[in-house]
Specification:
Oligomer: single chain
Strand content: under 5%
Helix content: over 70%
Number of strands: 0
Structural class: mainly alpha
Length: about 190
């Protein structure tokens, strides 16, 4: 609620039902506590499983599954833990360099996976020659905007279900990236 700068370790301890000394026994500074929160989230079993499923789709050259996995992960993260998403927004807004550096390092590893995949598929002649970072930003941007609106801002009027959003965004991305646009996207839109 108050962001990193606005929250004291005394308030954190009170909310956790422990003393401030207990916090400092486990975390040398408030920055270390913040980094531990981010680390736990980004290195969770869910993230490990997601990367495994993603790599499997990449090994099969299943472009649609790769894109769908990315979109599902963005929406699921926002839905399952909007407080974490709020924490990340606070980190950016407050310019918390420790948190932002850590987030950039972890995110860079995931971006590299997608960049390599998109470049490989472009060389194989299967994807249009968009800059992979731009394509990734467009795909993540669709999912993130939808998820922030629905789960952080709680704007739910006229929102499709998550499954409908995932399928629609996947088809939009596929029709933009693939050399031969898929027909399923127009059929899906007609059915909605």
């Amino acid at each position: 609620r108050k962001g990193f700068k606005g929250t004291t370790t005394r308030e954190i301890a009170a909310a956790a039902g422990v003393t401030e000394a207990i916090i400092f026994r486990h975390f040398e500074t408030k920055e270390h506590l913040y980094t531990a929160i981010i680390d736990r989230k980004l290195n969770s079993p869910d993230t490990t499983e997601w990367i495994s499923v993603l790599r499997s789709a990449m090994d099969r050259d299943d472009d649609e599954a790769v894109i769908r996995q990315l979109i599902q992960a963005v929406i699921k993260t926002n839905k399952s833990d909007p407080k974490f998403e709020r924490l990340m927004l606070y980190a950016a807004l407050e310019g918390n360099e420790i948190a932002l550096l850590y987030i950039r390092q972890v995110t860079a590893a995931i971006v590299d996976i997608f960049r390599s995949y998109f470049l490989r598929r472009q060389k194989q002649g299967e994807l249009r020659a968009f800059g992979p970072d731009v394509a990734l930003a467009a795909i993540v941007g669709m999912a993130q905007q939808y998820a922030l609106g629905k789960y952080l801002y709680e704007i739910k009027e006229q929102c499709p279900s998550d499954a409908q959003a995932v399928e629609s965004f996947t088809q939009i991305a596929m029709n933009g990236l693939c050399l031969q646009p898929r027909q399923q996207g127009s059929e899906l839109a007609a059915n909605q």
